[in-house]
Design brief:
With 715 residues, the protein is of the alpha+beta class. The protein folds into three domains: 107 residues, Methylamine Dehydrogenase, Chain H; 139 residues, Lipocalin; 256 residues, Rossmann fold. Helix content is 17%, strand content 38%. Strands 36-37-39-38-40-41-42-43 form an eight-stranded mixed β-sheet, with helices on both faces. Strands 13, 14, 15, 18 and 19 form a five-stranded antiparallel β-sheet that branches. Helix 7 packs across helix 8.
Length: 715
């Protein structure tokens, strides 16, 4: 009896100790169970009244009260119609439903579209002649326009006849009303037509891509022969599509071509109606440093310059152009060295600068015209943080709605009466709260992710900290570091660096890092110190920092990353012989460059979907930062890892999706050939039928298992 009691006590003690021990993170938890994935609140489809929003739930479109979260109605119900997306007419009397969606590229798709009339409760197909793209109602909800087979159509609601506006559309030759691949990817523009405010005209772009060279990738689908996808892809220095602007008049059934002065290879990345008689056209030269806003007369097609902007480097395209009721307009620009908001009059003269200071406006939420307020996001509290602010159209000091350390992202209702703030910190998953805008007072919490925050406490999480590094050019760089939970300064640890480093992005942000953050925590549990640094050329630190890599993309970025590695190698608690680096896309490009040019520092590198030669990437992105290879041969040759493959001495894992339409598999194949020609050993992982994101099924789990094993073996 006594022995039994002792046994029970010992078993109880062991069980208690077992449950008290911190848990370990695993790859299946990350990429199969998604155990650490926070509850997300998707983007809101706000209703016109400013207080309600709609969501798709189980084959229904359900309306909710934003302030209470209560369900207030069902706007559409058809469980048997498996629609993937929807949108409302301007007056919300009709709903466009997207069914049988078929993805084309990253942003573009085609589908069968239907119109649900909420008054008559009648469902009608937009067209029965084949799938459509970008079905869009006019402001009155009386007509709908769409693209099919590279031609533009419209029809009267209730009429079965499709009215064909263009007839010359042809695959890989002519596109009307939609964009080519490079516009879609680099200008974030897929739909290329716009209804006029009164619905009397349709403006559209025509792409003649007949002279653009083609690229083909292969898909393997267990068939006897593989399938091939061929599309137009202009690589740096090659011919682009010839793009022209046209306006179709519904009353006359005639189309006019807008008269635009400039070079034949100028870009037209945006069109927007200023009023029913004038179309605003954004025109930018191929170097992307000379931009014009043009106003085109909708009857004659004659255009005049409304605004000119020039830059010593390049100009980023955005969607912040906002016309006010008096035809003045809002514009954002790097004009004073930081990205700020400006008010211009209808003649294109600057009225006033509405935001000012040594910080970048990072997102433009819109204009509350009724109360004459502008809402925006800015990095006013440092590049790692984002706050929500407002300023009046009359100017003056901007008012902070949220500027606590961390990242705040706002979604405003149509009337700007309410907004939802998505807020997170580096070590805390996002919370979603509704605020009443005028008083800036909290209404309710939608999601606080307390369950996940509590669960994280059960795991052996490493210490996260931010730091600053002063590089050899006396420029301060922001970084973060994760140390193992049982870190001991008398021991020696390997360092694993994570990099993206490209334009318009940051890895060093005071926001929840998602699945990658938890993977890094898993590696910290295995005894690694994880480090990430935002090199020169990254976002939210003003124009000089952001554009300092111009014409030599990758040079300063690589120098910064190598310097950081050397800096850590001198720390007493770092094993200088065990420093590795990992990156994806631009980050894969930099990790490869670092392993080659920093062969004396890095023991290993992982490169996922990397650019290996800038000549193989597209015109718009590459030339924005490098100009053409013909103009800047040394910039291309000196900063493309393919030319330095022979310098690699460390362990190298090269990963690529074989159906990557963005950074082509060509990059990996050529890098492999270069390494083989130098008799340099390397590891490789190629994913058939996977694009730039390399996902689907067990793909991500397989990839992260592969990378984890490579790190454990080689670092």
């Amino acid at each position: 009896m006594k022995n039994t009691l002792i046994t029970i006590i010992l078993m109880t003690m062991c069980t208690t100790i077992q449950f008290a021990q911190p848990k370990e993170i695993t790859v299946p938890q990350l990429w199969e169970e998604y155990r650490f994935y926070p509850k997300m609140v998707p983007g809101f489809n706000f209703m016109n009244d400013g207080k309600h929003y709609s969501v798709k739930e189980n084959g229904e479109i359900v309306q909710y009260d934003l302030t209470s979260g209560e369900k207030t109605g069902v706007l559409y119900s058809a469980p048997d119609l498996n629609f993937s997306g929807y949108s409302f007419s301007t007056d919300e009397s009709k709903i466009i439903l997207e069914v049988n969606k078929e993805q084309i590229y990253r942003h573009s798709s085609r589908a069968d579209f239907y119109i649900w009339n909420r008054q008559s409760e009648k469902l009608t197909a937009v067209s029965e002649a084949g799938k459509q793209r970008y079905a869009t109602l006019d402001n009155k909800g009386e007509k709908i326009a769409f693209v099919r087979s590279n031609n533009l159509f419209y029809k009267e609601i209730g009429d079965k006849k499709d009215i064909q506006i263009t007839t010359d559309g042809e695959h890989n030759k002519i596109i009307n009303g939609a964009t080519d691949w490079v516009y879609e990817e680099e200008f974030a523009m897929s739909k290329a037509f716009e209804w006029s405010p009164e619905g009397n005209r349709i403006a559209f772009l025509r792409f003649d891509e007949s002279q653009v060279k083609e690229f083909t990738y292969t898909s393997y689908n267990s068939g006897l022969y593989p399938e091939y996808t061929t599309f137009k892809y202009p690589k740096a220095g090659e011919i682009n599509s010839d793009v022209t602007v046209h306006i179709y008049d519904l009353s006359t059934n005639k189309t006019i071509k807008v008269k635009i002065k400039g070079e034949s290879d100028d870009y037209i990345p945006r069109i927007k109606w200023a009023n029913d008689n004038q179309l605003c056209i954004t025109q930018i030269n191929r170097h992307q440093n000379n931009l014009k806003l043009l106003l085109a007369d909708s009857k004659s097609g004659k255009s005049t310059v409304m605004l000119k902007e020039q830059n010593d480097f390049f100009i980023d395209i955005h969607d912040n152009l906002t016309f006010l009721d008096n035809e003045d307009f809002i514009w954002t620009s790097d004009d004073d060295g930081y990205n700020h908001i400006y008010l211009y009059n209808k003649k294109g003269k600057k009225v006033r600068q509405l935001t000012k200071g040594e910080f970048d406006v990072t997102d433009f939420y819109g204009v509350d015209k009724k109360n004459k307020q502008i809402y925006f996001q800015a990095a006013a509290e440092g590049a790692m943080n984002r706050g929500i602010y407002r300023v009046t159209l009359e100017g003056g000091s901007m008012e902070s709605l949220h500027n606590e350390e961390g990242v705040n992202n706002a979604q405003f209702s149509r009337t700007f009466e309410y907004y939802v703030n998505d807020y997170s910190r580096a070590t805390a998953p996002p919370t979603y709260k509704v605020y009443e805008t005028n008083k800036n007072s909290i209404v309710r919490t939608i999601e606080d992710n307390k369950r996940l925050q509590t669960e994280l406490g059960d795991f052996n999480m490493g210490d996260f900290e931010f730091f600053e590094y002063l590089n050899s050019d006396s420029v301060i760089l922001n970084g973060w570091m994760i140390k193992p939970a049982d870190f001991d300064s008398t021991k020696s640890y390997p360092v694993f660096m994570y990099v993206y480093g490209g334009p318009g992005r940051q890895t060093v942000m005071n926001e929840w890092g998602g699945q990658n953050y938890m993977w890094f925590q898993m590696l910290a549990q295995k005894g690694y110190i994880i480090v990430s640094v935002d090199n020169r050329g990254t976002d939210a630190r003003g124009e000089q920092f952001r554009k300092s890599t111009y014409m030599n993309l990758g040079k300063k970025e690589t120098i910064d990353q190598i310097e950081v590695a050397k800096y850590f190698s001198k720390k007493p608690y770092i094993d200088s012989e065990r420093i590795g680096i990992f990156g994806w896309s631009f980050g894969g490009y930099l990790s490869t460059a670092c392993l080659a040019k920093g062969a004396d520092v890095f023991k290993m590198a992982i490169a996922v979907a990397p650019v290996i030669n800038w000549k193989w990437y597209d015109t718009i992105y590459t030339e924005r930062f490098m100009r053409t290879p013909q103009e800047n041969d040394s910039g291309y040759e000196d900063n493309s890892p393919i030319n330095f493959a022979g310098l690699i001495r460390g362990k190298y894992l090269l990963v690529h999706g074989m159906a990557d339409d963005n950074v082509h598999f060509q990059n990996a194949a050529e890098m492999a050939s270069a390494l083989i020609s130098k008799n340099i050993p390397f590891d490789e992982a190629y994913y058939p039928n996977k694009n730039h994101g390399i996902y689907g099924g067990y793909t991500r789990s397989h990839l992260y298992n592969k990378m984890t094993e490579f790190i454990l073996k080689n670092l």
